[in-house]
Amino acid sequence: MPTTRNSKTIARVAVPAPLYRLFDYRLPKGCQDLPPGVRVSAPFGQRKLTGVVVACVAQSELPASKLKAVTAVLDEQPCLSEEIMQLLQWAAGYYQHPVGEVIHTALPVRLRQGKANAPQTESCWAATVESLEQAAEQLARAPKQRKLLSVVLDHPGISESRLNDLLDNWRGAMRSLQQKQLVMQRDNRISPACEQEPVAAHQPNAEQQQIIDTIQAQAQHATHLLHGVTGSGKTEVYIRLAEHAIEQGKQVLLLVPEISLTPQLTERFAQRLRQPVAVMHSGLNDAERHRIWHAAAQGELAMLVGTRSAVFTPMPQLGLILVDEEHDNSYKQQDGFRYHARDVAIVRAKRLDIPVLLGSATPSLESLFNAEQKRYLLHRLHSRAASRHTTRLELIDMRRQPIVEGLSEKLLSNIARHIEQGNQVMLFLNRRGFAPLLLCHDCGWTTRCHRCDAHMTWHKSRNRLRCHHCDSEAPTPTQCGECGSEQLIALGSGTERIENLLAERFAGVGLCRIDRDTTRRKGALQDKLAQVKSGEAQILIGTQMLAKGHDFPDVTLVGILDTDQALYSADFRASEHLAQLIVQVAGRAGRAHKAGEVQIQTHHPDHPLLQTLLHQGYEAFSHSALQERRAAGLPPYSHMMLLRCEATRADAADAFMREAREALQHSASEYGGEYGSGAVSIFGPLPAPMEKRAGRWRSQIILQSTRRKPLHLCARAAIARITQMKSAKKVRWSLDVDPVDTY
Ligand code: ADP
Ligand code: ZN
Ligand code: ZN
After folding, report:
1. How far is the CA of 489 from the centre of ligand 2 (A)?
2. Are 106 and 84 in contact (CB under 8 A)?
3. What pLDDT score does 385 carry?
4. 326-336 in b/e burial notation, b at 16+ Cβ within 10 A?
5. DSSP string across 341-354
6. In the 8-state DSSP scheme, what is residue 340?
7. Is the peptide bond before 475 cis (omega within 30 degrees of 0)?
8. Is the pLDDT of residue 368 over 70?
9. Does position 544 have pLDDT exceeding 90, yes or no?
10. Which member of 382, 466, 616, 684 has the lowest number of beta carbons within 10 Å of its beta carbon?
11. Mean pLDDT throughout 286-315?
């Protein structure tokens, strides 16, 4: 096509830089009007970056002589579909984040690096024998081949890139195994899920059927909220809906929190759907992630199961979005581009005019509020699908009771009773390490972290102090840092201390501790879970890693060791999170054929939150919690943004925040007009709940409004001012839209 004055030979490109704008580039000769979503390679300062074309235009605001040229056009077809490009631009606007960074989050690393859109096909390998023993003779003198075969047996259909991650120089050994016909190669672009044995489906019960019918009756957009206790058959409903959508030639996206992404869940879908189901999670390598992403984007994948960032995966036939455990905080990205994957999923479904289903045993107050307002359709599953047992919740009044290392005698004797009956017990404490601090008995000195407003936790088995907020470490002191006394007391209990105590009290009983310290090694969590499944471990002790997703049928007693901190937290969401935790943990008890008991230790047994939750359930709790929020004008009754700032020097933070406040105030009065003055309230600057962290001073300004529009207009205008401020260069600042915590 000949170029004329009106030819669109200038590309507006999103580059991965923290700047709130696009950059204009000249296209190479003969190239014009590229569609949005095509990647280009372009010079940026001294570097060469991979950018994404957002639009092509005939004229730039810059004179032609100032325009740099694109070095190369990387795609023939857009790599990001128009739908995704628009969704990303909406998200950049809504979350007020630089568009180039937003667009780049949506690309797999390989594509950010400028590699070809179509992934290289990788060979995958599977064993022809079922166990190592079957090949024992053939491999008697070949330890390397033995090792390789055991890896292949552990990972059926393992890809070359994954093998490269796990082993060095495996190719020679693989050739030998192939010659011995112990392995075979297959071209396996996506997970082997659809090769699963078929599994008979349950007949949905009446409640499930009605929900399925209601949701299927309408192909257009609606946001459905499915509230049902753990085990009430929510997953069964997801499977039926997915099945139906796939039969219509649609693709399905299921979002799950990272921690509950268990192989069992995916297997369950794969077995029932007998369709290509792939899983996208943080454990994949770049090649694997790229392959799955590409298969989804090509429409080859019937169903994608993924964590937070999967919400941005192009899926041309997307017909249904499911969000499991919708209340989970891990859907919110807590740094950089701070989006909320559940909320983006709802917007995506709305733009595509398709249904989205949010499921939870403990829906967020936001979602329940939206259901109350009739913006979402609420569906309830009232009872457990497969068992008739319910869980009994009970408070243990800790006041004036003998307490051993944070455990009441009452709970200890209950543990003994459940163990004797051959059942399993799960204890939950959201604090790892041995003790949260050491205290000098003679002068009161404590092991404070020098970089944070926090104490360093004593990890006894590793004999180190460690700060859980900045990761600083120090040797365990033998003497007080102030007076030299050797009378150091370990104050409070963490999971490690509870484990020690239980090991003494219940000698000979299998113990298993699951927290970040015991599961750091790759595969360690799987090993631990296997110990629990096999019954080798009878007592489990862990942090919130335990609370989600895993199915432990023989657990009949759950102990929640510490609730008091959350009852009196400064964070207005703390009580909501505590209630969710209690109900979720209760859902872990007595899931299969046994009745369960949950015992909650507290010094505040009369606390209204605990009383409402115990005697009237989560729904009643949520009503009263919502009333409190309404009275205080807090979300969901208002919208919130948080301007955060941190700096190594307190005066730099102060100077920035003072100016930022002025900018916000100015913008608020400009944009408040249309909505009435005072449409946006500004609070602060206030010190962050932890004012000093990792050596940085942190403060925040809270913006609040009952209407979204003026809040967003005000923030946008203020950001334009703030990015121009000199003081902004000396601090790290960010804007958090709809923050889930104020930490
Ligand atoms: P949730 O996702 O709400 O925790 P699940 O869908 O996993 O619940 O169901 C819990 C258990 O009940 C599973 O073992 C499942 O196979 C079983 N189940 C679900 N629906 C039915 C049904 N209609 N009839 C019999 N068993 C069912
Ligand atoms: Zn001392
Ligand atoms: Zn620290």
Report:
1. 11
2. yes
3. 66
4. bbbebbbbeee
5. HHHHHHHHHHHHT-
6. B
7. no
8. yes
9. no
10. 382
11. 93
Q: Are residues 671 and 530 in the same domain?
A: no
- Of residues 658 and 119, more confidence is placed in 658
pLDDT tens per residue, range 305-353: 999 999 999 999 999 999 999 999 999 999 999 999 999 999 999 999 9
Asked if 345 and 311 touch (Cβ cutoff 8 Å), the reply is yes
What is the whole-number distance in angstroms between the Cα of residue 486 and the centre of ligand 2? 8
253: which 2 tokens?
A: 């996206």
Q: Which of 72, 91, 112 is the last residue of a domain?
A: 112
The answer, yes or no, to whether any atom of ligand 1 lies below 6 A from the CB of 204, is: yes
Do 165 and 282 lie in one domain? The reply is: no
Mean pLDDT of 254-276: 79
Mean pLDDT of the chain: 89
If one counts the domains in the chain, the total is 5
- Tell me how far the alpha carbon of residue 474 lies from the centroid of ligand 3, in angstroms: 11
Among protein residues, the one with the nearest Cα to ligand 1's atom 21 is 385
From 202, 388, 550, the mutation candidate for ligand 1 (largest count of ligand atoms within 8 A of CB) is 202
Q: What CATH number should be reported for the domain holding residue 547?
A: 3.40.50.300
pLDDT value at residue 651: 93
The percent of residues above 70 in pLDDT, for the chain, comes to 94
Which are the contacts of 323, defined by CB distance < 8 A and separation ≥ 6?
254, 255, 331, 341, 342, 345, 356, 357, 358, 359
**Residue 593 pLDDT > 70, yes or no?**
no
Distance 384 CA to ligand 1 centre (A): 7
Are residues 620 and 648 located together in one domain of the fold? no
- Please, are residues 556 and 418 in contact by the beta-carbon 8 Å criterion? yes
Alpha-carbon distances, residue 619 vs 365, 575, 589, 597, 613 (angstroms): 10, 14, 20, 20, 8
Least confident window among 42-46, 214-218, 521-525: 521-525
Amino acid in position 411: L
Please give the Cα distance from 207 to 227 (Å, whole number): 12
Q: Which ligand has the minimum distance to the alpha carbon of residue 441? A: 2
Ligand having the closest approach to the CA of 268: 1
pLDDT at 590 over 80: no
Residue 106 domain boundaries: 10-112
Residues 239, 297: one domain?
yes
Range of lowest pLDDT (99-108, 254-263, 406-415): 254-263
Task: Look at residue 194 and tell me whether its pLDDT is greater than 50.
Answer: no
Where are the alpha helices (H) located in 341-433, listed in sequence order? 341-352, 365-372, 409-420
Q: How far is CA 113 from the centre of its chain?
A: 25
Instruction: Give the separation between CA 194 and CA 688, rounded to whole angstroms.
Output: 50
Atom of ligand 1 nearest to the CA of 361: 3
What DSSP string describes 257-281?
A: -GGG--HHHHHHHHHHH-S-EEEE-
Two tokens at 730?
A: 């000396």
Same domain, 143 and 257: no
Domain end call among 347, 381, 415: 381
Half-sphere exposure of 396 (CA within 13 A, CB side): 24
Same domain, 427 and 563: yes
Who contacts 362 (Cβ-Cβ below 8 Å, separation ≥6)? 327, 579, 580, 583, 584, 618
